[in-house]
Amino acid sequence: MNQLFKISFSIFMLMALMVALPAQAQYNWGDYEVFSVGTPPKTEAKKAKDSLFKLSPRNSFNADGLGGFFVANTADRFESGQLILSSRYRFHELTSNRGTSFFQTEDGHVSTWESSLTWVGDWAEWGFTIPVHDWSLSAPRTFGTRSTAETGLGNMRIGWKATYLPDKSYYRFAYGAMATVTTGNPEHMLPAGSKTNDELKLFGCVTTRETDRATANLELGAVLDSETEDDRFIYRGGMSYEATKHVSLIGELAGEIQGGDDKDTLDLVLGIRLGINETWNLEFAYYKNLRTFREYGWDDQLQAGYSLRW
């Protein structure tokens, strides 16, 4: 055993001496010549390529201030280190109260302008959204109040979405959270959809590549109310199609379920996004209400918006 140890140690020392020789140095040992192995040439590390989902006009921001379709969040990734401004304008006429239509002489409308500022990091997105509402309502028989109108600040939203999860064979996951904070005077903004309680939305989504032009998306989550009065389950399913290099067509089904007894809401969303250039993106969408349990319900809604990256 001692003899084997001595032989092994001698071989190890010889190998260490050869490695320690200067690069490309040549030595004569009698009839033998020894050359050092030398330092292998350095090669640049290959940059990871987003090969599964290419950025296209479909990539913009939703009402949470996070990357997604018009309503849903998606697992798409933007280039990190960007600060992105996006704004949306929405308009709808008020027509119902928790599924019951207004009387013929009653009406109202809501206009909303919201702006989002989003920071895209290496592994997550952070979004901050401020909405401003203008509304009027004349439905004394339904609500027992006189006609009124208001303009003011709605509930702010702060969103976060983790985007570091790796691509799989044809899909990618993402998850995140979005907090809605009561700001301004939320009671005066109730017809515009503001809540009087804070809310926390937890969600997960998966985006799949169907073809070179078609992308599907599914988002599932829950909204937790600070007073546990309006907890609900949410689901969003959608698909985009790249009609041209600068045009994306998007369709979505966006629903919410609050317990039983048909306390659910479902909207169909159809829209288009236009990639003007690498930094500008325009969008137009139409919402059709299919089922509603909103206190201030509507049948149709129009939306227009843009995003600017820098």
What can you tell me about this protein's structure?
- This protein is mainly β.
- 7% of the residues lie in helices and 54% in strands.
- It has two helices and 18 strands.
- The strands form three sheets. A twelve-stranded antiparallel β-barrel has the order 5-7-8-10-11-12-13-14-15-16-17-18. It has a two-stranded antiparallel sheet with strand order 1-2.
- It is globular and about 55 Å long.
- The N and C termini lie far apart (70 Å).
- The N terminus is likely disordered.
Number of helices: 2
From the spread of the alpha carbons, the general shape counts as: globular
Q: What string gives the helices and strands in order?
A: HEEEEEEEEHEEEEEEEEEE
> What strand order characterises the main sheet?
5-7-8-10-11-12-13-14-15-16-17-18
Distance between the termini: 70 Å
- Summarize the amount of helix as a percent range: under 10%
User: Strand tally, please?
Assistant: 18
Beta-strand portion reads: over 45%
Largest sheet: 12 strands, antiparallel, barrel
Helix-strand category:
mainly beta
Rg estimate, integer Å: 29 Å
How would you state the average pLDDT, rounded?
85
